[in-house]
Amino acid sequence: MCRARAHWTGSGATPAPGLTRITPTIRVSHGQVPAGDFGRAAPAGAVSFSVKHTEGVNVEVRCQSPAEVGPAPGSGTRWPLDKGTVLRFSMSRASTEVNDNKVTVSFYAEGGQPINQAGVFLTGIGISLDVDADRDGVVEKNSPNKASWTWGPEGHGAILLVSCDKENPFTVASDCDDERVFSREDLLDMSRMVLRTEGPQRLPRGYEIILYIPVSEADKVGVFYVQNPFFGQRYMQVLGRRKLYHTVQYTGGAAELDFFVEGLRFPDDTFPGLVSIHVSLLETLSEGIPHAPIFTDTVMFRVAPWIMTPNTLAPVNVFVCSMKDNYLFIKEIKNLVNKAGCDLKVCFGYINRGDRWMQDEIEFGYTHAPHKSFPVVLDSPQDGGLERFPIKDLLGPDFGYVSREPLFEAITSLDSFGNLEVSPPVTVAGKEYPLGRILIGSSFPISAGRRMTRIVRDFLCAQQVQAPVELYSDWLAVGHVDEFVTFVPTSDKKRFRMLMASPAACYKLFREKQKEGQGEATMFKGKGTSDTKRVTINKVLSNNILMQQNQYVQRCIDWNRDVLKKELGLLEEDIIDLPALFKLDKQGKAVPYFPNMVTMIVLAKDLGIPKPFGPIMGGECCLERQTRCLLEPLGLRCRFLEDVCSYHGRLGEVRCGTNVQRRPFAFKWWHVTP
């Protein structure tokens, strides 16, 4: 868009009397410059005027009456000089030289006698700050939508990635903490922003162009520009935490200056995700007078969110810790991973430092913009021996890292990421959640129990695209949602099923087997523990205390079931109940009575399920048989993994000791309507 710089003159060396009062300030609006109020400032005795101008200028006459607004007539036409008459002019193209365009106003007395002339010299400068506002990978020129941001398939607005990966292996911090760029690959994470200028070879004296960001956004966005372009293409940060403005070197003619923009932090409770960058043309009226902006162009970005991946997405890598007592478990996991067609990554002792709970330490997700996508791991505030693992083994080129640490809140077991799950895409009462909904465990609403720390909950909510649902998990000793709910993919219209732990389903199955004469079938055969007590179906069914405890557990699960049906838009046929039993510890918290099959690992159609060691009938565990009957008709393959010694005895299961990195959604998150 052309911006005009004006210089007024009168006829001869000295302006006509009164013309100094109509000298315009260069206050630019939509490419127009107000020329002044001729009714107050015209020469004495003037009753009309005419206008002529060079080819590159557009002129408009504005009177007090809206009906008298219109383009200026030819140079032979005269307009009455009424009170409030204003002349507005704009440039239709950029100048090639300073003062290369002119508007001349001739004033006339009664009877048509010329009195005097006033002229304004114009310099047109084109300035446009541009971004990929329509999200097609192209930085279009002067998009009408570049200064705003809207959601949905028909939405618009540019997108930034947080540069939370690390391209340089010799730096300690993520790229977003480094104010230098030495790698071309690092620029590929950033969004391109182009400053297009057009005009004479130099700016008129007293003018300059600056690029700037608000103080409130200095810690949220960084802008890089090439330094010494002929010596290695080194890029330096010109806007960011320590610099709020950058003076642009005007090069003359038609020029495009490429800037690269990165996000410095993900949205959170104090940052909604929107950042603006401005460019202004500054003018000083005379030496000693500060510069003032006469034109500003603005672009807006939204920082791309962190997005979780549900079990229904394809697995890429499976992570597990190597411990002294889980060699056989890793061997079984490796076979499962090979069948699923993904890779196994083993974290050895020098990194895990005796910590086996891979699921509790991290949650895999990703971030996505039109130009790029890469995985990002969210680090739990609940640090154990695996504290160094995500930074030392995961953070790297195109693999990001983010964490949220509370300053004052106490960290509990509910801050581990076994307590963080996400549903597949759902539709609830007509509202679509195409990226699913996050599930987190908490205390019962009226109790003062354990909750996930606020800073993590606020972070998850602020991403906006996977609206979280709080469930009640504090009734469990460990307190994780993955102990009573998970999701598996299916190939039917629904595309998934929700699995829930169910004491009621277990008691129903045991009673059926008891009626069939299998009451003395023994549990825990081959469990590999020192517990020599013989447990049969009859003993389980006759244990009134255990039954009462499981009635309580079932009520807790049913409360969550109702919440999940409402918040995920599920019907009963979308839910599968897997047999499970619990017992209460001395604090009244529930722990699994036998390995909890819901706490499984899901690798596409292949399921790694904790081996329950249920009653053996005909050489087969009846719990395993029941689970196969429920899941295999859906096209799923069940593999039961022995985890008693490695995990179950420590109040964990297969999923707790593993973690899965998955492919991202094909769906573009900016098409969501939060």
From TrEMBL:
Q: What is the source species?
A: Melopsittacus undulatus
The cofactor required is: Ca(2+)
KW Ion transport (keyword) present = no
What keywords are annotated for this sequence in UniProt?
Calcium, Cytoplasm, Hydrolase
UniProt-recorded name of the protein: Protein-arginine deiminase
Q: Which reaction does it catalyse?
A: L-arginyl-[protein] + H2O = L-citrullyl-[protein] + NH4(+)
Matches recorded under Pfam families: PAD, PAD_M, PAD_N
Q: Domain (Protein-arginine deiminase (PAD) N-terminal): give its ranges.
A: 37-123
Protein-arginine deiminase C-terminal domain ranges (all copies): 294-671
Annotated region (Disordered) at 1-20
Sequence ranges assigned to domain Protein-arginine deiminase (PAD) central in this UniProt record: 125-283
Its primary localisation, in coarse terms, equals cytoplasm
Query: Where is it localised?
Result: Cytoplasm
State whether keyword Calcium applies: yes
Classification via InterPro entries: Cupredoxin, PAD, PAD_C, PAD_central_sf, PAD_N, PAD_N_sf, Prot_Arg_deaminase_cen_dom
| Entry's family note | Belongs to the protein arginine deiminase family.
Q: What is its EC number?
A: 3.5.3.15
